[in-house]
Design brief:
globular; alpha/beta; 8-stranded parallel sheet; single chain
Length: 579
């Protein structure tokens, strides 16, 4: 991470809590124990756990951020999958939908010293089920809960009921920061940018005077942010990109709205209004995904490019520009980097839950994205971007024409997409909802296979991202969707791509990782706009089938030459950077 990464700066302010939690995890109590970190949104819970994890080593370390409305079975499956991959360095060989995941999890972790961090458990019943599924190996294994302040009862239940020996001191409550700490964090966040001087309440914050921050400044920063670390970081990110006169204007606007909305709300609103339009669009696009879901950075940047959010510049590739846009959002403290590659570019990104709530509200208000939830009523004629996420029961009316649709993003759990012959409400609901959208079951096909032909009516579609549905093939009519620039289909049952795919002359990205597609029409490789092809086992045609140079192709993953073919067309891919 960068030296001035907000998370690194914050860590020196939470050192006491880091040491307390580290000592709690290290305490010499053999029995498994539950520890809770509780606080309001933006209080620094994840930052604290991340800092602690950097200092400790465990035989098995699992961190799972639960999407909203996750069931107990969902949690057990995800913990099992992560634990299995940690131990065996590969995904489980069998389906995550198999019964008795609790028994599998206990067997897998038997004898292991583990740390399981769970963010989002909202009920004592769910905690009891997870707790019973984890073996007590008498080797100081630990479970850490990251909880919003409204779920303090879950933390209390863990301390009083589940812990056998140590009940007191196993709940760490993160409250708002005091005036001194708030002002100092703000000062550290802004002092390395520009001239290091920020006008606040008529004085200069960010230019230390003997290492002290004035009482007036402390009170001002605290009043502006209410001692919320997220608000402090975002406010600093807003001001550090401004000239002194602009800063004063923004601060006055924030002051005027102080009585009308909470600190973090008015700071986020000011930050959003201040963004250039192209950055606004890129940021709002992240509202398509639910809370606690990380996204591959390259995937997000390619979708931005396909939507046309990134303005072309001479001498810069779309990939370079996309990285600049993402770095800008990260530097403004609106997006968090999760992992870094060797050269420092983020591999996965995450939007803080409180920021995401704001973005989803703005996206709905601007009709930018229609995000399905329990209260939504779709108006297909005006929907431009549609996001379907497997995060609980929603209502969708039975209309299937989306004439203005530009992006279709559908991410469901694999077993929900496969819809087995079950009588449970979950399967029935998914069958009903997908059918309403036009994702009807294919007659004569194996149970749970779906058809997305309804999308062929959306002639302006640019982005198609589907994960987890029961697809075995894509519709032949897709070749007529000439505006398609990005196709990502991650469905285990997919075996065939339409022969008409070569007609998509504007296609830039084809991502079919996680599918069983082995062949594609040879003329596909004549698409001059093609930049990224990612697959599992796709076979390249002979060089003679690729008559012209593929001068834009940058990425080629999971693709191999035809067996016995010495005339591989790789030499025609002159700009290939990754394969």
């Amino acid at each position: 991470m960068d030296r001035d990464d907000p998370q690194i700066i914050m860590e020196k302010y939470i050192e006491n809590n880091v040491n307390y939690l580290k000592n709690l995890l290290d305490v010499e109590i053999d029995e498994k124990m539950v520890i809770s970190v509780v606080g309001k949104s933006g209080s620094g819970k994840n930052t604290l756990l991340d800092a602690v994890c950097k200092k400790m080593m465990w035989q098995v370390h699992i961190w799972y951020n639960m999407p909203p409305d996750s069931s107990t079975q969902d949690v057990l499956k995800q913990v099992y999958k992560r634990a299995y991959k940690r131990i065996n360095k590969t995904d489980p060989p069998y389906s995550a939908s198999e019964e008795d995941m609790a028994a599998r999890l206990r067997e897998l972790l038997e004898g292991m010293k583990y740390l399981v961090i769970l963010c989002g458990i909202s009920s004592k019943t769910m905690l009891n089920c997870v707790w019973a599924s984890l073996p007590d190996n008498n080797n100081c294994s630990r479970v850490v809960l990251i909880l919003e302040s409204g779920h303090y009862d879950v933390a209390k239940h863990g301390a009083d009921t589940l812990n056998k020996k140590m009940k007191e001191g196993t709940i760490l409550w993160l409250s708002r920061w005091d005036e001194e700490t708030s002002a100092r964090l703000f000062q550290d966040m802004v002092k390395d940018s520009g001239d290091g001087v920020f006008k606040v309440s008529g004085s200069e914050v960010g230019k230390p005077s003997g290492g002290e921050v004035s009482t007036e400044d402390k009170q001002y920063v605290y009043a502006m942010t209410e001692g919320n670390p997220l608000a402090i970081v975002v406010l600093a990110g807003l001001l550090q990109h401004k000239e002194p006169v602009e800063r004063e204007t923004l601060l006055k606007q924030l002051d005027q709205n102080a009585s009308r909305m909470p600190a973090i709300e008015r700071i986020l609103s000011a930050f959003y209004d201040d963004l250039p339009q192209d950055l606004k669009s890129c940021l709002l696009y992240l509202a398509a995904y639910p809370k606690n879901i990380t996204q591959p950075a390259e995937q997000i940047m390619r979708m931005w490019t396909a939507e046309g959010f990134i303005r072309r510049r001479k001498g810069k590739t779309p990939e370079e520009l996309g990285r600049m846009y993402l770095d800008e959002l990260i530097s403004r403290c609106l997006v968090t980097r999760i992992r870094t590659k060797d050269k420092g570019s983020p591999q996965k990104v995450l939007v803080h839950g409180r920021v995401l709530e704001f973005l989803q509200s703005e996206a709905r208000h601007a009709n930018f994205i229609d995000i399905q939830d329990r209260c939504d009523v779709l108006e297909p004629a005006v929907v431009r971007r549609l996001s379907i996420q497997d995060d609980g029961n929603r209502y969708t009316p039975s209309k299937t024409r989306f004439p203005k649709l530009r992006s279709f993003i559908c991410r469901v759990e694999e077993e929900a997409g496969q819809i087995r012959s079950s009588t449970t409400s979950t399967w029935c609901w998914w069958s009903s909802m997908l059918s309403c959208l036009g994702l009807d079951l294919v007659l004569g096909a194996p149970a749970g296979h779906h058809d997305i032909s309804f999308l062929c009516k959306s002639r302006f579609l640019r982005v198609l991202s589907v994960q987890g549905l029961g697809l075995v093939e894509l519709p032949e009519g897709m070749g007529d969707m000439i505006h398609l620039r990005y196709i990502r289909v991650k469905c285990k049952g997919l075996k065939k791509l339409p022969s008409s795919i070569w007609k998509l002359l504007n296609l830039e990205t084809l991502d079919i990782t996680g599918t069983d597609v082995k062949e594609i029409h040879p003329r596909f490789w004549t698409i001059k706009a093609l930049r990224h092809v990612l697959a599992e086992m796709l076979t390249l045609p002979a060089a003679s089938s690729v008559p012209e140079e593929l001068g834009e192709l940058q990425t080629l993953h999971g693709v191999k030459p035809a067996q016995g073919d010495d005339n591989c067309p790789l030499h025609k891919m002159t700009k290939l950077r990754s394969h």
